[in-house]
Amino acid sequence: MHTLRFLVLCISGVASGAVYPGTEWATKAPGDVGLNAERLRAFSEYAGGFGCVVRHGCMVYAWGDPSRRMDVASAAKPLYTHFLLKAVAEGRIASVDQSVSEWEPRLREINADLDHKDARITWRHMANQISCYGLAERPGTAYAYNDWQMALLFDTLFVKVYGAAYDSVDDKVLRAHLTDRIGCQDDPSFMAFGPDDRPGRVAISPRDFARFGLLYLRGGRWNDEQLLPGDLAKMVVTSPVPNSIPRAGEKAAEMIPGQRSIGSRQIPDNQTDHMGSYSWLWWINGIDREGRRHWPDVPIDAYGCFGHGGKRAMVVLPSRDLIVSWNNTRIEGRDMENEALKRLAGAVMRRDSK
Questions:
Q1: Smallest Cα–Cα separation from 22: which of 183, 174, 204, 208?
Q2: How far apart are CA 145 and CA 166, in angstroms?
Q3: DSSP 292-335
Q4: pLDDT higher than 90, residue 223
């Protein structure tokens, strides 16, 4: 059953005049914001699952139950980047180029046969998946999409830098510094499966995830408050790992004792290449080593986060002032992502394409 939400008064940001949701999302009919309702329906039928579409700061289309909170798998990773850069902006971390070993000294003790390479891992390396943690390459020299590294990033950042425990990180960090500030309605959590099962996995509803997308669409600003400096909000979605950095190989290296994974159990873990489109744990519409656009039929300024190969996602199309968030869909792989987003962008009526 498709749910179309109809016109109500939108709430404007105090300083900028931009539209933001309040306690509830303001809603408009698709036609009132220059979208074709039938094309939106065709898009959601292609996707399956459940989700919602936001345009000009208002909820304009939903399918299934957009209030349903569910694990988003790897789509959670930009939340880690958000809190990393917030820690830098607030002075908790000196710089993204600070050695992570200053917070996790055990990194200095491993891989003696590789000249203790992990002592040189920086926050920048980890937030671009070029740390080579658990692999033989030196930090910064190769890319590996690696869930052991992601668990290390989560634990070092939230437990050591922010001083939270698994049972307090939602209250102390997630709600206090983000989700309460942007008015999330469905209680997002870093403990999607509880503190004993892959802590750091995020459960969030599509309509709440769309708020996070709106924060970045608006350059880190929410109403009259700058939650993240605008230059950092722009940097994370415009700075892909360069194609000169190769994908890492398959030679495993030592990890710290007791290292857990946020998902994959593969050792070594090296799930995909960056394809010229990986930027601070976001996926953007870059160009790969063969000169191919990541999503060839989608506006080039698109960026998003994806889990389980695309089944769970939140995507921003700035030039269309569009945000889409979906979960539990049949979308899987780059080609299906491209087709889904092509259909969504195609719902914008020609006279209102910007």
A1: 183
A2: 24
A3: -BSSTTS-TT-EEEEEGGGTEEEEEEGGGTEEEEEES-S--SHH
A4: yes
| Residue 43 C-alpha from the chain's centroid | 22
Looking at residue 350, its pLDDT comes to 74
Residues 6 or more apart from 171 whose CB is under 8 A from it? none
To the nearest 10 degrees (0 to 180), the angle between helices 334-345 and 37-47 is 170
Q: How far apart are CA 259 and CA 251, in angstroms?
A: 18
User: What share of the chain has pLDDT > 70, as a percent?
Assistant: 94
Separation CA 268–CA 133 (nearest Å): 9
Residue type, 207: R
| Residues 142, 246 contacting (CB under 8 angstroms) | yes
According to the model, what pLDDT value does residue 87 have? Answer: 98
Identify the DSSP state of 159. Answer: I
Closest to 31 measured CA to CA, from 352, 302, 354, 315:
352
Whether the predicted pLDDT of 354 surpasses 60: no
- Across the range 210-219, mean pLDDT stands at 98
- Residue 190 has φ and ψ, to the nearest 5°, of -80, -5
Distances 258 to 148, 218, 254, 267 between C-alpha atoms, Å: 11, 40, 11, 14
Say if CB 237 and CB 282 are below 8 A apart.
yes
Provide the greatest CA pair distance for the chain: 65
Angle, alpha carbons 105-110-111 (nearest 5°): 145
What is d(CA 226, CA 218) in angstroms, rounded to the nearest whole number? Answer: 10
